[in-house]
Write a structure and sequence with these properties.
By secondary structure, the chain is mainly alpha-helical. It is built from five helices and no strands. The radius of gyration is 18 Å and the shape is flat. The chain starts with a helix and ends with a helix.
């Protein structure tokens, strides 16, 4: 919360991403706390949470790729890459849908 006061949403994004390297639980709780006290909206917490999940997934991919078993490396890292791709495609589609809805609501007469 203190970093948010001084640096704004950029600090939230960086902090959540760094926390995600170790655990997504801490990033989730921190973001939920900020939403609960009204420092950020739930919508503003989506990108930092996605960044935390991405950082955590990249660490898990790195760990999987260090395995000595090739089939394990392929299966686990492939599944994690797919999970990461779905996360960011969903985020992107949400942005497109919100823009389309906003534009549609502005052009429709009352």
């Amino acid at each position: 919360a203190l970093l948010n006061d001084y640096f704004g949403s950029a600090a939230i994004l960086v902090t959540a991403t760094l926390a995600g390297l170790v655990s997504t639980n801490s990033a989730t709780v921190a973001l939920a706390s900020l939403v609960a006290v009204g420092q950020i909206s739930a919508l503003e917490g989506v990108l930092p949470l996605a960044a935390a999940l991405s950082a955590n997934t990249l660490v898990r991919i790195w760990i999987a790729l260090r395995s000595s078993e090739p089939s394990f490396r392929r299966t686990v890292s492939g599944g994690l890459v797919l999970q990461l791709a779905v996360l960011w495609v969903a985020w992107w589609l949400d942005g497109i849908a919100r823009a389309w809805i906003t534009e549609l609501s502005l052009t429709m007469p009352l």
